[in-house]
Design goal:
This protein has 422 residues and is an alpha+beta fold. The chain has helices at 3-9, 11-31, 56-71, 101-113, 132-135, 149-164, 188-194, 198-208, 235-239, 254-257, 291-308, 320-350, 352-375, 382-411, 416-421; strands spanning 41-50, 77-85, 88-95, 126-131, 139-144, 169-175, 180-186, 212-219, 222-228, 242-245, 251-253, 258-264, 271-273, 276-285, 313-317.
């Protein structure tokens, strides 16, 4: 039995299916995840390590070689490519097409946890899974004003915590801030005068600036943990630290051979908002989040945060939901225009009933597509919307051809059911 004959013989069932499709299709269209770009996974990972002031040759020996040796046993690796530059190492891992990316990501994290012999001064390795959701933020928020660097950094941290509390937010990255640093500027002439080397100065600070466990002690029925507290609490403690003793038995302190400054690290990224110092916050969403509703929550949160913080300006930039809204608007506009034109043309040539049937098929096809997209975990994004816009013309053409053919068989003397089946 052909599909056409089955549909004609079971009209009630087909009408019920159409009603169900319209109800669930509308519900799916409203609540299905919407995003700017689909979650394309490139099957690759990046590992980045920063180690300032180190030459490319030393980066290769101290960082790259150790990480590559640990990753050599990973399964389903196609190839590993590494680049060492001044103060920075980048390692690219390309997986085989057959590899399970989630398992590979977990294995990569496990292997990287075993790398514990990197230089102490090097930054912790930064791991990145290369897919569209990891590299495409949904928006950028700029926080700026006539505020100090420390105030901007603290406000950015507070803003990040509040954004992460919103629904469907996967991660938030902050750039343009400078962390607090204690700089010890040594006086070379003073060091020579007291016979102290830079290594002596560094070793004295490293040996003193640490907390060390001392075991436990039992007193009666009570047991106490012993811990030596040695980390510096303020600059005065650093300045008064004894480095060595001179020939006269006088202690030589850091303040005698160096200047201690409480400052900020050197700026790597400079952000500006309307000509004033600013901090940039990149926001990423989860896979099941609706970018339109998520951006509405972000706008509300930014307005609330700006209202609470006097002297702070907050602006949302690169809003990805705008492009998604435009694509949805284009699809809806084209669909409405298509329905109207199909109805008018068919009404003129084959009557208003046939025109109504053809026009009815356009929204039915789209709503059925939304249901199937939801079942196959396909989100409503710019690419899928573009595909639906392209398919709209095919739907209109097919509807016209089918109805014109039915009309032709009716003129040949067939009844309505026979014409529809033919």
């Amino acid at each position: 039995m052909s599909l056409a004959k089955f549909s004609v013989d079971n009209g009630v069932l087909i009408n019920m299916i159409m009603i169900i499709v319209f109800i669930f299709g509308l519900y799916t269209m409203i609540y299905m995840p919407k995003e700017e770009m689909p979650a394309v996974d490139f099957g690759a990972f990046y590992i980045m390590v920063s180690y300032r002031g180190v030459s490319p040759a030393e980066m290769e020996t101290l960082v790259v070689k150790k990480i590559e040796d640990q990753l050599i046993d990973m399964e389903d690796v196609d190839y590993i490519s590494s680049t060492a530059s001044e103060g920075r190492a980048t390692i690219y891992i390309q997986m085989d097409p057959k590899a399970d990316i989630d398992d590979a990501w977990n294995e990569l994290n496990t292997e990287m946890d075993k790398v514990n012999d990197l230089p102490e001064d090097a930054d912790d390795p930064f791991l990145l899974q290369l897919n569209m959701r990891e590299v495409n933020e949904i928006c950028t928020v700029a926080l700026g004003g006539d505020l100090s660097d420390n105030a901007l950094r603290e406000l950015a941290d507070d803003f990040k915590d509040e954004i992460l509390e919103l629904g469907y937010i996967s991660k938030v990255n902050i750039s343009g801030t400078r962390d607090r640093q204690i700089w010890i500027d040594s006086n070379i002439n003073k060091l020579k005068e007291y016979g102290i080397s830079l290594n002596d100065l560094a070793n004295a600070i490293n040996m003193r600036n640490k907390n060390a466990p001392g075991g436990s002690i039992k007193v009666g029925y009570a047991e106490f943990l012993i811990r030596t507290m040695g980390e510096f609490d303020n600059i005065d403690q650093i300045e008064n630290l004894v480095v060595s003793m001179d020939t006269n038995g006088r202690s030589v302190r850091i303040e005698d051979v160096a200047t201690v400054r409480d400052t900020l690290e050197e700026a790597i990224t400079i952000s500006k908002l309307n000509g004033k110092k600013a901090v940039t916050v990149d926001i990423y969403k989860k896979a099941d989040g609706n970018i339109i509703s998520v951006m509405e929550d972000i706008y509300k949160k930014t307005a609330e945060f700006e209202y609470r913080m006097e002297g702070l300006s907050v602006e949302v930039r690169n809003d990805g939901s705008i492009r998604v809204k435009n694509s949805i608007s284009t699809l809806g506009t084209n669909a409405i225009i298509g329905i109207i034109l199909v109805f008018i043309v068919l009404w003129i040539f084959i009557g208003w009933k046939n025109a109504l049937f053809a026009s009815w098929g356009i929204p039915f096809s789209f709503l059925l597509a939304f249901i199937l997209m939801q079942q196959f975990d396909v989100t409503l994004n710019n690419l899928s919307l573009f595909a639906l816009i392209l398919v709209l013309g095919m739907i209109v053409d097919d509807a016209i051809i089918v109805l014109e053919n039915i009309h032709r068989y009716r003129e040949m003397g067939f009844n309505l059911k026979e014409a529809a089946i033919k």
